[in-house]
Amino acid sequence: MNSFGYVFRVTTWGESHGKAVGCTIDGCPAGLKIDEEFIRREMERRKPGGEFASKRKEEDVVEILSGVLDGITLGTPISMIIKNVDVDSKPYEALKNIPRPGHADFAYYAKFGIYDWRGGGRASARETVARVAAGAIAKLLLSKYNIRVFGYAKEIAGISFRVENSEKAFEIAEKSAIRCPDPEKEEIAKERIREAMREGDSVGGIVEIVAKNVPPGLGEPVFGKISAYLAFALMSIPSVKGFEIGRGFDVAKLRGSENNDQMMLRDGKISFLTNNAGGILGGITNGEELVMRIAVKPTPSISRKQRSVDLEKMEEVEISVKGRHDPCIVPRIVPVAEAMVALVLVDCMMLQRLIPRSFYDRKGN
């Protein structure tokens, strides 16, 4: 399944080592001004490079092929392409018939009888570059309603980061090579990553995503919960193995009196004393900020020797994965997670007609 969304529907396409990757957005309202500089900045945030990321040199330049005229959306499908300019499949040739541990190679083989050995194909994190492009359009839509979505690393390699104010944390993290919001712990986390690199290994972590100014009432009862939709969106990202909202799994240790978000009147409006629910009650937004976290596994491509099976010879083998890989995918997964949350919010708002199908009136103004 390569499409996501009900009204604001995104389809991604392309393989990691193919000629390009891209996306098509169907359902974007007409009359939205497209800020290409903003899209460029969002793509920059996910780009490889630097000490703690893959050395694959992709420019990740987005070319808009359709759906936009003179910088304004037409209401027709928006198609975007990002060309792959630094592909090197040679390190993978020796593994053509050998699925890599921790990757989707064997699962794809079990399902289709074939898999793309060139870096994982569709299962590669390279696919997420198209999500960030689509998410940038969604963020532009949300900005018209003063809704912001942002994220940062909450933990890397077992080192937890202190966050007192989410917006300040985001500002600090955006200046960090590992998106760490806690300057006191940053060097410790970096050294953990370097240690894993020296040993031919990798590390994982936790990412926190926050959405501010989300209106109350988004989501549907029972099977249409926005919490379930967000889980679906974020768990679809490669390497994500866990999801929680608000206090998450910590609520298992609390009493009801500790966990309940009590209510009060402030300036004649209902507000909450705490936000343990993370902005969602009964699967519907309550007007508080959305707070969620994802657990990100260690990058499966490591140079340490591991056991696998040669599918052609049907014999056990020992392999070492070569190529250019992130020792920790946490920093680069942050903008991907933001994109998926933005896509969910736009889709839910359009489902409830809070965002019109066109920002023009019938006279085209």
UniProtKB/TrEMBL annotation:
Keywords for the protein's UniProt record, in alphabetical order: Amino-acid biosynthesis, Aromatic amino acid biosynthesis, FAD, Flavoprotein, FMN, Lyase, NADP
The keyword Amino-acid biosynthesis belongs to this UniProt entry's keyword annotation: yes
GO annotations of cellular component type: cytosol
Entry keyword Lyase: yes
First and last residue of the signal peptide: none
Any one GO molecular-function label of the UniProt entry: FMN binding
Stretches assigned to coiled coil: none
Cofactor(s) listed in the protein's UniProt record: FMNH2
E.C. no: 4.2.3.5
Amino-acid positions noted as binding NADP(+) in the UniProt annotation, renumbered to this chain: 46
InterPro entries: Chorismate_synth, Chorismate_synth_AroC_sf, Chorismate_synthase_CS
Domain of life of the organism encoding this protein: Archaea
Entry-linked PANTHER family: CHORISMATE SYNTHASE
Official protein name in the record: Chorismate synthase
Annotated organism of origin: Archaeoglobus fulgidus
